[in-house]
Write a structure and sequence with these properties.
The complex is a heterodimer of chains A (about 475) and B (about 60). Chain A is α+β, with helices and mostly antiparallel strands. Chain A contains 18 helices and 17 strands. In chain A, about 40% of the residues lie in helices and about 20% in strands. The mean pLDDT of chain B is about 95. The chains are: A alpha+beta (about 475), B mainly alpha (about 60). Chains A and B meet through helix 6 and helix 15 of A and helix 2 and helix 3 of B.
């Protein structure tokens, strides 16, 4: 849920970039998703190679491994499904360093997996059918024990993966960046879509992951679209406006004294929980009812309880914050001013990104990093589209990819401009990261994203051919 | 057949028409272990109808 923290000593002008990459795990021979016992075997073998085991406090299951590096911790576990490997790297100064670490550590994990008879694939959805009850593939985490009866259709996310990118953004640039990147979600997907074969057939979506995220996963969570909505229903005037919006829904989870809990009454919003000053009934992972009251220690978690296309991460120093002052700053729309000198980290987790093909893992992170690093030009570009058009584009381009016109122009016309904006943004950083855009320029020239290429392979060689090309 | 049964039947028809990935059918049908109001069933049906119409319309 939160990318690992970096231990890099940086000056305030260095924009760090962190990678949180998910890849589906499949059996090397059959291509079917792996089972719980296989993931467990992977963790055990990695522990044997001096990775630190991570046991879930509630289920006692071995759910992942970590490794300390001199620049922070690498966190390896599975997301919703045991067949979805998630590797989160500590933020780096640039993508050259990030690539180096990814190559080294990901290769180590995959070499161990291969000896166990399975591997990762560079596709955003597992192409073969999931046989049997998906609950058998649910990761054994206390978090899910608490929310399973709320998120009753959450398992629809088991077969999907994404490559999330975490980019440092100053507080004063947060809202502009959220608005721009959210609005461009569809265009970003058009260039990078990579989940088109599911159930061994070509789906109607080039990025069917978008559709998986649209399934109404809960009946009960209040205003669920505010926190699981992809592109939110509105743009934001400032950070206060953003938090008022996401806190208009039920708090999915609360942590008190290290315990994961949730409110008993789903009709209570996060805003009510934080502002009422009252005690509420809450449920623990083992279904006990306890009393809970909001305080400053809730803020860091509450600020990140949204899974939209662009997710805010702000870590405040809770010793410098009073809950009432924080809430008052939001009421007065002055949160940016209030947070000055009170935060230790602020970054955006950009979540609409499809899984990149093998060997092109740094392309989407580079594209996004360049856009964020050239915010003025990006804002100008975004004026071409209204908020509603941005939402419409995501729906259409997740289905059509680049093979489409929007507002009487080809999607490639817009993407070429976006790539240029990103290239300028990367060149300003002077790390040579713009080289990672080359593969994206090739896609633009060919007018084919990874999903288009997968369709071509599927038509010639079927699902086995797709798996062969995409297996690590 | 009451309204809820009618909605469930319609949802099942959409889920089994081969348009959506199988896991949608498995997970959505499984969720009916929990009590659903008419309104909640309508949300699911609307989702299926809208998405199918959108994708078919763009073919």
């Amino acid at each position: 849920m939160q990318a690992p923290r970096s231990t890099i000593k940086k000056n305030k002008d260095v924009r760090l970039v962190g990678l949180e990459f998910e890849n589906q795990l499949v059996y090397s021979k059959s291509g079917f998703p792996i089972k719980r016992k296989d993931t467990k075997a992977l963790w055990e073998k990695l522990v044997g190679r001096k990775w630190t085991p991570v046991y879930d406090k509630y289920t006692s299951a071995l759910v992942g491994v970590n490794k300390k590096t001199n620049q922070g911790e690498i966190v390896v576990n599975t997301d919703t499904g045991v067949c979805n490997l998630e590797v989160a790297f500590p933020p780096k100064k640039n993508l050259i360093e990030a690539q180096k670490e990814h190559k080294k550590k990901f290769s180590e994990i995959i070499s161990v997996a291969k000896k166990l008879g399975f591997t990762a694939i560079s596709l955003g959805v597992t192409p073969r059918k999931i046989n049997g009850d998906p609950y058998n593939l649910k990761t054994e985490k206390g978090l899910y024990l608490i929310i399973n009866d709320w998120l009753i259709r959450h398992n629809v996310q088991i077969p999907i993966s994404s490559h999330q990118v975490c980019i440092d953004v100053k507080i004063e640039d947060m809202t502009k960046s959220i608005n721009c990147l959210s609005k461009l979600s569809g265009l970003i997907i058009a260039l990078t879509a990579n989940s088109v074969i599911e159930n061994e057939k070509i789906q109607n979506w080039k990025e069917i992951r978008t559709l998986h995220w649209k399934v109404p996963i809960s009946n009960e969570i209040k205003n669920i679209d505010n926190i699981f909505g992809g592109i939110p229903s509105k743009s934001f005037k400032n950070l206060s406006d953003y938090f008022k919006f996401i806190w208009n829904g039920t708090p999915l989870i609360i942590i008190k004294n290290g315990e994961w809990i949730r409110l008993k009454d789903w009709r209570i919003t996060t805003w009510q929980y934080l502002t009422s000053g009252k005690e509420f009934d809450a449920i623990t992972a083992d279904k006990k009812t306890i009393k809970v009251k909001a305080d400053e220690s809730d803020l860091n978690l509450m600020m990140m309880l949204a899974w939209n296309d662009v997710k805010v991460h702000i870590i405040v120093d809770s010793k410098k914050i009073k809950l009432d002052d924080f809430i008052n700053a939001i009421r007065k729309n002055l949160l940016e001013k209030y947070l000055k000198n009170k935060i230790s980290t602020s970054y955006l987790e950009i979540r609409m990104c499809p899984v990149s093909p093998k060997g092109e893992e740094m392309t989407t992170p580079a594209f996004l990093l360049g856009l964020v690093n050239n915010l003025k030009e990006l804002e100008n570009f975004c004026k071409k589209f209204s908020w509603e058009e941005g939402r419409e584009m995501k729906n259409i381009l997740s289905i059509k990819g680049m093979d489409c016109m929007f507002k009487n122009k080809s999607v490639s016309f817009y993407l070429e401009q976006l790539l240029k904006i990103s290239e300028i943004g990367l060149k300003k950083r002077k790390f040579g990261e713009e080289k990672f855009l080359n593969a994206l320029y090739v896609r633009l020239k060919e007018e084919k994203n990874p999903a288009d290429k997968t369709i071509e392979i599927f038509k010639k060689e079927g699902v086995s051919g797709v798996l062969k090309v995409n297996m690590y | 057949m009451d309204k809820k049964q009618q909605l469930l039947k319609e949802i099942t028809t959409y889920l089994e028409n081969g348009f959506f990935p199988d896991i949608f059918s498995v997970v959505i049908k499984d969720s009916f272990r929990f009590e659903h109001s008419e309104k909640e069933l309508k949300v699911i049906l609307r989702f299926l109808k809208t998405q199918m119409k959108l994708a078919e319309g763009l073919k």
